[in-house]
Specification:
Number of strands: 27
CATH topology of the largest domain: Immunoglobulin-like
Radius of gyration: 24 Å
Helix content: 25-40%
Oligomer: single chain
């Protein structure tokens, strides 16, 4: 898949890599060279050798983003990249790509036809972040605890072609401090991969005094970090590895390698992003709850498998994020990693987020246009997909007397993809119609267009029973990804009515976590405006809305739960 298509299609998740290709593939060799400044790695030099690209004058040699899903990327100037081939130096010029809500690219064009192999050199530097940085997907390269950690798309300029390569990535640590480690998503030290430039862009890198479990980083599974975390990393690694094995077994993908990277955010927010055969999770400066970390890591691991092959994020996010939420709850429960009460809590959280969303009746396409500007729109495919799968699973089980469910369809998609087929959203619609008839196609169309998804009251019977209650959803009233400045204040919100103003500098935000959990919990902010500090308190809640609530049935302890 072309690099730009791959990145645009997978901004929220990372697809499973295609099977390795024969050794006759052209070569793409990367040498990573950390630069040491005092006690810190402050930059990463890159030497890239491209096997005979055969480019005509004016053709694109390299590409990299200038904007990646809400993150500005400092793409290199043309003269910051040294390029030469068998005939000598190559002059590069830049061509800016068309703006897109998710990704914008810069291409590097050659001034003459290339001769033989092309070697390019450049140096990548980390993004400067602090407590004022808006949280977003974890793609940027960051300095932390003497090292660097981030995704390739932030600092790698790579071939713009569609070729599959035999990729070799190696490290030159001669200019780095003793004990410096270089880790890629595929492991430490020299590694090879049959893949595309897109696989490298979506890869993770950790450079510097990296710590790991196991300590040597060897084996099919490892977890890496730079800062000492506020939670038990050994326990998290053991739990996550056990869950990964269970997932790999369910998705019929045993024997693959997997890496997890952890990074500390300088602001009170957590999150995760999928990378090639790996993922990264960030924990906030307000601490990290062990249960929340387990849910986040499980969600990100699911992203290794379910996906659709459309090139439009708006078309596929309901599937990638919906399956991630659905199987986080279902597989954790099936593997006895969470209790039935916790399973019910997860179902209720997704149901509440869905039914109280201001975007509940917004189409997938319209919501996709606002993914990176409004966190509430970005959340929609997670909960819409979850409710869709909950409903579909109940329909399938009823129609087949329990013989088939969502598992069968999701695994069938994977089977076809592993056989080399492209499976798109239209193919999914055909599959559900084949199972349940044309009403299932209309249900799918309704989901895409934004009509209400209502799972049957018996969807989780006999374990969970459904009722209706009025709920006031949590509503901060302004951009939740901005932690130290009030941005995108919503008129009519409780925050605005209490006196917050656009641009207020937030010195402190008290009782946030409790206010999220307690519908009566007040939120208190100390803000600075025009040089004056003021204290503003309000109830961060939206207007009441009807929400389905799932409760554990009295007889459920003795019942066999069918999910």
């Amino acid at each position: 898949m072309p690099i730009k298509t791959l990145l645009l299609a997978t901004s929220l998740s990372m697809p499973l890599l295609a099977a390795a290709q024969p050794a006759t593939l052209p070569k793409l060799d990367l040498l990573m060279m950390p630069h040491q400044h005092g006690a810190e790695v402050d930059a990463i030099g890159v030497r890239l050798t491209i096997d005979n690209p055969h480019l005509a004058p004016g053709a694109s040699l390299l590409t990299m983003p200038t904007y990646a899903v809400s993150i500005d990327v400092p793409a290199y100037a043309a003269d910051a990249i040294e390029a030469r081939d068998d005939a000598g130096p190559l002059t590069l010029t830049v061509k800016e790509g068309e703006p897109d809500p998710s990704m914008v690219f810069r291409d590097y064009l050659v001034g003459r036809a290339t001769v033989g192999n092309v070697v390019v050199r450049y140096t990548g530097k980390p993004r400067a972040v602090d407590a004022h940085t808006r949280n977003g997907p974890l793609y940027d390269l960051r300095a932390e605890a003497g090292g660097l950690l981030g995704a390739g798309m932030y600092f790698l300029a790579l071939p713009a072609d569609e070729r599959r390569y035999q990729i070799t990535l190696d490290w030159d640590l001669s200019q780095a401090a003793p004990g410096t480690r270089g880790v890629w998503s595929l492991g430490e030290g020299r590694q090879t991969l049959a893949g595309t430039s897109g696989d490298l862009f979506q890869s993770g890198f950790a450079i510097g005094p990296v710590k790991s479990l196991p300590a040597d980083g060897r084996g099919p599974f490892a977890l890496y970090w730079l800062s000492e975390p506020p939670f038990d990393m050994a326990r998290l690694a053991a739990d996550t590895q056990a869950m990964y094995r269970a997932m790999a077994s369910f998705f019929q993908d045993q024997g693959t390698t997997y890496r997890i990277f952890a990074r500390r955010n300088p602001y009170p927010s957590s999150g995760g992003s999928g990378w090639t055969r790996s993922f990264v999770f960030g924990y906030g400066s307000d601490g990290a709850n062990a249960d929340d970390q387990k849910l986040l890591l499980t969600h990100e691991m699911v992203h290794n498998w379910p996906r659709l092959d459309d090139n439009d994020l708006s078309t596929t996010a309901w599937y990638t994020e919906g399956t991630a939420e659905y199987y986080t709850a279902v597989l954790l429960y099936r593997n006895q990693s969470i209790t039935l009460d916790k399973f019910a809590e997860l179902v209720n959280k997704h149901t509440e987020d869905y039914m109280t969303s201001p975007f509940i009746h917004t189409s997938n396409q319209q919501a996709g246009e606002q993914f990176w500007s409004d966190t509430r729109a970005q959340r929609l495919p997670y909960v819409r997909g979850f409710l869709y799968f909950l409903r579909l699973n109940a329909q399938l089980r009823e129609h087949t007397q329990g013989r088939r469910g969502v598992d069968d369809l999701v695994l069938e998609v994977l089977r076809r993809q592993r056989a080399g087929q492209q499976v798109r959203a239209a193919d999914w619609r055909t599959m559900v119609v084949g199972e349940l008839g044309e009403p299932a196609g209309r249900d799918y169309d309704d989901m895409v267009s934004g009509k209400l998804i209502e799972p049957p009251a018996s969807a989780l019977a006999p374990c969970l029973a459904r009722s209706l209650r009025q709920v006031r959803a949590f509503d901060l009233g302004f951009d939740e990804m901005s932690h130290t400045v009030v941005r995108r204040l919503r008129a009519g919100s409780q925050a605005a009515l209490a006196g917050l103003a656009e641009g207020d500098q937030i010195a402190s935000m008290d009782n946030l976590q409790q206010a999220r959990k307690d519908e009566t919990g007040m939120l208190s902010l100390l803000v600075t405006r025009d040089g004056q500090q003021r204290r503003i308190s309000y109830l961060p809640r939206a207007q009441p809305a009807p929400v389905w609530r799932w409760t554990v049935s009295p007889a459920s302890a003795a019942a066999r739960c069918g999910f």
